[in-house]
Design brief:
The protein contains 7 helices and 7 strands. Strand 2, helix 3 and strand 3 form a beta-alpha-beta unit. The longest helix is centred in the C-terminal third of the chain and has 29 residues. The protein is globular and about 85 Å long.
Length: 260
């Protein structure tokens, strides 16, 4: 079993202090701090907006949707930091160590990890988390942190709206395909009705054809050459891997990690 590495006390103490003003405008019963911007990537206004959004969607899905950013020489493996954060601070929608989705952003090593615990693990499996990470990686690389975090919150809400094992992206694709087929069929029926409305055409290709003199005069096939083109497939600039795991405290989770 992996030996648990203690989270640097100073590091997360600073992170928690930065998060405290988020709960100031309203009572703790109405809103709770879910955005811990230790790396200072957001303005206070941006952090407040994201925190309110995370609380809104989290209440709908009964899941804490959290964002944690770190920029410190004390930062270590991004997946282990996520696991230790969950063990030590025990977030959860209605109880300690409950339903939680965590986005951990390590600016020191430019690594990203997204994890789902309990209900979030069930609804946000590794594949769905990979899709969320792929969606936000380009914005993170470009420094559009608020947009990336907002997309993460919205996508967590989106995927948790579909039962586990269902690919909602395929459902939407199939819907558009069926709509397109319906339009084509409908258009064909209308076109046929318009053509028949002017009377049937009785003249065809054989009306003026002399069968005794008509025919193929000659037929010839010539093979010229075959050309082969080669194209180099570029590899992605961001690395990915990992998946889920289990914390030192015994809490299993889904996961997706990568660089940006």
């Amino acid at each position: 079993m992996r030996r648990k590495r203690a989270i640097p006390v100073v590091l997360f103490f600073v992170v928690l202090l930065l998060a405290l003003p988020l709960a100031a405008p309203v009572s703790a019963a109405e809103i709770k701090p879910l955005v811990y911007d230790g790396a200072g990537l957001l303005t206070q206004e941006e952090a407040n907006e994201l925190n309110a959004l995370a609380n809104e969607y989290g209440a709908l899905r009964e899941t804490d949707i959290m964002i944690v950013t770190i920029d410190s020489p004390d930062a270590y493996d991004v997946q282990e930091m996520t696991q230790d954060f969950y063990d030590d601070y025990g977030p959860g929608f209605d109880k300690r160590h409950g339903n939680t989705a965590i986005l951990m952003l390590d600016m020191t090593h430019r690594d990203l990890y997204i994890a789902g615990f309990y209900k979030a693990k069930e609804y946000l499996d590794d594949d769905r988390l990979d899709k969320i990470r792929d969606k936000i990686s380009s914005d993170l690389s470009d420094g559009n942190y608020k947009l990336a975090f907002q997309t993460y919150i919205e996508k967590v809400d989106y995927y948790m709206g579909f039962r586990p094992g269902v690919n909602p992206d395929n459902l939407l694709y199939n819907l558009w395909v069926q709509l397109g087929i319906s339009v084509v069929i409908g258009g064909g029926i209308v076109t046929l009705m318009v053509r028949r409305s002017g009377g049937r055409i009785t003249v065809n290709s054989r009306t003026y054809e002399n069968a005794s003199t008509s025919g193929v005069l000659a037929h010839e096939d010539r093979y010229l050459h075959t050309s082969v083109s080669r194209r180099k497939i570029e590899s992605s600039s961001s690395s990915s891997g990992g998946g889920g795991g289990t914390t030192s405290g015994g809490h299993s989770h889904s996961g997706s990690r990568g660089s940006f």
